Amino acid sequence: MSSVLATQPEPAPVAKVSQPKLTNTALLAGACAVLLLGPLAFGAVEPWSIFALEACAMLLLAVWASRQWIHRKLNVCDNVLYRPMVAFFALVLVQWVVGTTAYRYVTYSRLLLYAAYGMLAFVVTQTLRRSSQFELMAKLFTGYGAVVAAFAVVQGMAPNGKLYWIWVSEQGGAIYGPYVNRNHYAGLMEMLAPFPLVLAATRFTDGNRKIVVAGIAALMAASIFLSGSRGGMAAFVAQMLVLGVLLVRRREGSWKQPLMLGAFLAVVIGFLVWMGGNELTQRLISIHSGAREEINGGARFTIDRDCLRMLVKRPILGWGLGAFPIVYPEFRSFYTTFFVNQAHNDYLQLLVETGLAGFSIAVWFLVLVFRQAAGKLKDWTETASGAMTMAALLGCVGILVHSFLDFNLQIPANAALFYVLCAIAASAPLQESQRRRVLRRHSLIVQPNPETPAS
Does the pTM of the predicted model rise above 0.85? Predict the structure, then answer.
């Protein structure tokens, strides 16, 4: 009996599920859902949608913190942007506590909103650590962008002056897609379009998938022009210039990617000629005349000058975050029956509301973004980290150019996505799977060396 028992095989060990990785992916998916649902709620500009954005951000952070508590281990991935983010939060907190703001309530409200941006950026950077997660996020952004762009184009072909053909905008506006203002729709597409474009230019798609993904990118890019946003058009051109320069500077295969970029732009132009017609042509022609009108005394240029006068009065700490529309009537130098709620220039509005101190922190923030991103752009068509950084950086470039002409960063949905993209661009390199590393090494080995003469 004992001999029989001794010869019995031991039960095979049960495979354990990697719960932390599943939790990371779930948290990342939750953060992406918050970022992508915001634009559908008219840009998250209404009180209920702002509350939902803040509550979801706090919930995601609480889930991440509870996971750390359960595992009895604090696993935090550092990001250089945390320092300027904390510094800016402290500056606004001083405005609110000390009372240097012109309206404490609105500054407190904006403080909560910026805290929500920081929470989302923190959760994304703590959970986005593997190349497979980037691929999932890029495909999610691509599919979402295709649906929203297609809806916006169809809506532009058959408009009735209502959001989703249902809701009437009380304050009017140039409705396009889910936004009351076409410029803010263009800002969303500027941040999303680089993802399918980067997928099409890298090894993460192949065969017919490249054509499909490139077609989606062309649709999203064309919708920027069809929206009629002149700032969006300028921002997209700047993005393509940056991408073209980076492609030309690559040492290996320097002719293939620029050729693909040229073909992509040709498709976009062809789509615009087919869909845009005379209306788009007139809008493009109006860029020069519109800019000339503003310089000769238009409202935006006058607002810019008034902002500088406001800055002189409070140059260090500014008038308080979010206080621009409350203070501006005192400095307005022209007559209008409209309520000027934003400066239509995010840089000047930041100067007015947070002074030179806040503007310096913003410059520090952007310098860190570009410095950290530059170190990961080598071989960006081959690695997940490089592709992720390129997509995020191009999105940031688009908004930064557009911010000279509009106020995308005052729209919660667009601002949240922008800050998350900045955090992604400055984050640590991703962990590539063993399969991806083997495939990449194999592709490098079998690739012929152009300097080796044929036998």
Answer: yes
